[in-house]
Amino acid sequence: MKQSLSKIESAFLEEISQVSDADKIEEIRVSYLGRKAGQLTVLLRGLKDLSIEEKKLIGPAANLLRQKIESTLTEALQKAGSSAVPEFDLSLPGKISQDKSLGHLHPITQINRELIRIFQSMGFQVLEGPELDNDYYNFEGLNFPFDHPARDIQDTFFIDSKITREEPRDFTRNDWVMRTQTSNMQVRVLEQAEPPVRCIIPGRVFRNEAIDATHEHTFYQLEGFVVDENINIGQLVWTLKEIFRQIFKQEVKLRLRPGFFPFVEPGYEVDMFCVFCGGSDVSCKVCKGLGWVEMLGAGMIHPNVLAAAGYDAGRYTGFAFGIGTGRLAMLKYNIPDYRLYMQGDLRFLEQF
Ligand code: FA5
């Protein structure tokens, strides 16, 4: 067996020294290492019939010869300039060169992650909700009776098909909508959770509305609500101020105006002082010179909503808010136009 190995070795070295073109080199490879009838392959196959002592002796020598043949073939191919030989090592890890920038997070993702971190530090649970939802959770359960004009506040994308999906309840109306608000999670969560409840739901929402510097048809909200005994407006205001203080790393001026949302009573619209012009520029695209930008809706959860979720509305109270996270990111990162988020323009995205 040993003699056969040396015969193969010298024959191979003799043959390879006489060829210089890639096709011939390939022929030699097949003749020695080919899977079916390669001379060395056949010999290696015979190893299994040897005794253990012989295997120990011949096995390593045969493997060594195979490696030698392989590396000699590769060298020969390199000399022949074959494209079959990679010019670089594909198994090496990539290099980060100065002129190639790393990927980075979209500003909405950044603000969401920051909000999640802050809310989690305050004991809020983070949940997700469906973007396509039943009329019940988006409207009816939230105290928007069918055909009530309050539904017109949010221009809705209605879905023109019957969907069957496993849901925790039978719907009074089997109508589906692209959710217009992350508030669609209020009843859904409360139906399944026991108080105390403290959670946030960041997500995408959809409205069939005209777009401008502060409005998109597809935009981002973060819903939050707390339900327990003795929950009050003071706690809502404190929570909002604290969140804004942590996001902007300074005290932020917020303004509460009475606002109507059928699922809260009392309800508020909350504005933040415009950091772009402070109200001094009538041509400011963000606040239009008013000095304030509407950032969120909020209020005390309406007893009808608590009752729809099966809560004893006499015993439990709760507050809820829905922050426009895209608007928040505009003020935090000085973004003058909401439409920039969705345009995929690298000149914009690379700034974050
Ligand atoms: C609501 O969507 C309520 N669900 C908020 C709420 C939650 C109220 C809980 C009470 C209790 P509103 O339609 O105002 O409310 O939207 C909330 C925020 O989303 C706005 O303050 C604004 O920051 C943002 N927003 C609303 N419409 C758009 C839009 N078209 N484009 C971008 N951001 C928007």
From TrEMBL:
Gene3D superfamilies (UniProt xref): Bira Bifunctional Protein, Domain 2
EC number(s) given by UniProt: 6.1.1.20
A Gene Ontology cellular-component term: cytoplasm
GO MF term list: ATP binding; magnesium ion binding; phenylalanine-tRNA ligase activity; tRNA binding
Keyword Nucleotidyltransferase: no
Cofactor(s) the protein needs: Mg(2+)
SUPFAM superfamilies to which the protein is assigned, alphabetical: Class II aaRS and biotin synthetases, tRNA-binding arm
Cofactor note: Binds 2 magnesium ions per tetramer.
Key words, A-Z: Aminoacyl-tRNA synthetase, ATP-binding, Cytoplasm, Ligase, Magnesium, Metal-binding, Nucleotide-binding, Protein biosynthesis
Residues the entry annotates as binding Mg(2+): E265
GO terms, biological process: phenylalanyl-tRNA aminoacylation
NCBIfam families according to UniProt: pheS
Protein name: Phenylalanine--tRNA ligase alpha subunit
Organism this protein belongs to: Candidatus Kerfeldbacteria bacterium CG15_BIG_FIL_POST_REV_8_21_14_020_45_12
Originating gene: pheS
